[in-house]
Amino acid sequence: MTGSKTENKYRIHYSNLFWITLVHVGAIAAIPFYNFANLMTVLIGVFILAPLAINLGFHRLIAHRAFKAPNWFVYFVATFGAMMGGGAPIHWAASHRIHHQFSDNDGDPHDSRKGFWYAHMLHLFETTVEESDGSDIKKYASDLLADRYLVWLNKNWMWFALSALPIFYLIGGWSMVLWGGFMRLTVMWHVMWLVNSATHMWGYQTYNSKDNTRNNWWVGILAAGEGWHNNHHAFPSCAAHGRKWYEFDLTYFMIRILEVVGIATKVKHPVEPNAKKKAHDGLVA
To answer: CA 76 to CA 70: how far, in whole Å?
Structure first.
């Protein structure tokens, strides 16, 4: 994914095509093995652990630097995010930063102008030379390349994702592997992807973010605060995505807890959460 995609030829991303298809097939195979324990594994993974690892870790901490944290915590959430199946952390951050720079314009990795399903998941089945050779990471995530552990994790994240499967097997056998591994990951992915698709199409705009981003209440609930996407694009580095009293942001609540116990510092809080101002006017502490 690159900031000049219009100048590059797309090619099929065979690795993504294989793994995403395999995980979805596994999720379908899991359906006959439904039980309460397996369902709870999915719910906890998607609605509690994913917000900590992906929303808080990959997104607000690593990609946007919305707050500071000790290295051990950065490494913990990055590793946990990889184990959850969130992908390579540096690649994730670089792609997301590109999205913010070119949101709903040429160069956006998941341009919503190409339709719901393209923004949702079809973009994952194509790549560019710049994404494949690492040029995008060097350009958009050079700060993260200075960290040896994150670089190592970026190359080896898949082993952490696969390591979760034998753990699930020890806990509950093959049915737990199918539900805790494949079903959980499928549901988690689609919830994450809704932020790229649904929140660029349906909802309301509070700020002039100069793109198609929307605040979508049901994605806000499902994605633990990530659905207040117009707010986020207006103030990308702010730790809080919810700005109004009814825009509940579970991920921001987690950050506040970390701040109270001293793990999160220099948190970029909203100063005037109800103010209607032009985007990027410095409405963060």
So the answer is: 10
Residues 6 or more apart in contact with residue 227 via CB below 8 angstroms: 194, 195, 198, 199, 203, 215, 216, 217, 218, 219, 220, 221, 241
Q: Which domain holds residue 147?
A: 5-208
Shortest CA distance to 85 belongs to which of 141, 176, 162? 162
Alpha-carbon distance 172 to 183, whole Å?
Answer: 14
Question: Quick check: 185 and 19 in contact, CB under 8 A?
Answer: no
Determine contact, residues 227/274, Cβ cutoff 8 Å. no
Q: Is 254 a domain residue?
A: no
How would you write the pLDDT of the chain (285 residues) with one tens digit per residue?
A: 334 444 456 789 999 999 999 999 999 999 999 999 999 999 999 999 999 999 999 999 999 999 999 999 999 999 999 999 999 999 999 999 999 999 999 999 999 999 999 999 999 999 877 777 778 999 999 999 999 999 999 999 999 999 999 999 999 999 999 999 999 999 999 999 999 999 999 999 999 999 999 999 999 999 999 999 999 999 999 999 999 999 999 999 999 999 999 999 999 999 864 444 444 443 443
Question: Global pTM?
Answer: 0.90
Cβ atoms of 68 and 35 closer than 8 Å: no
Q: Which residues does 15 contact at the CB level (< 8 Å), separation at least 6? A: none
- Domains identified in the chain, total number: 1
Instruction: Give how far the C-alpha of residue 183 lies from the chain's centroid of Cα atoms, to the nearest Å.
Output: 18
Report DSSP state, residue 264: S
> How is residue 124 annotated by DSSP?
G
> Would 199 be classed as within a structural domain?
yes
Domain membership of residue 223 (yes or no) is no
Q: CA–CA separation, 55 vs 53, rounded Å? A: 6
In a domain, 105, yes or no: yes
Host H or E run for residue 11: strand 11-12
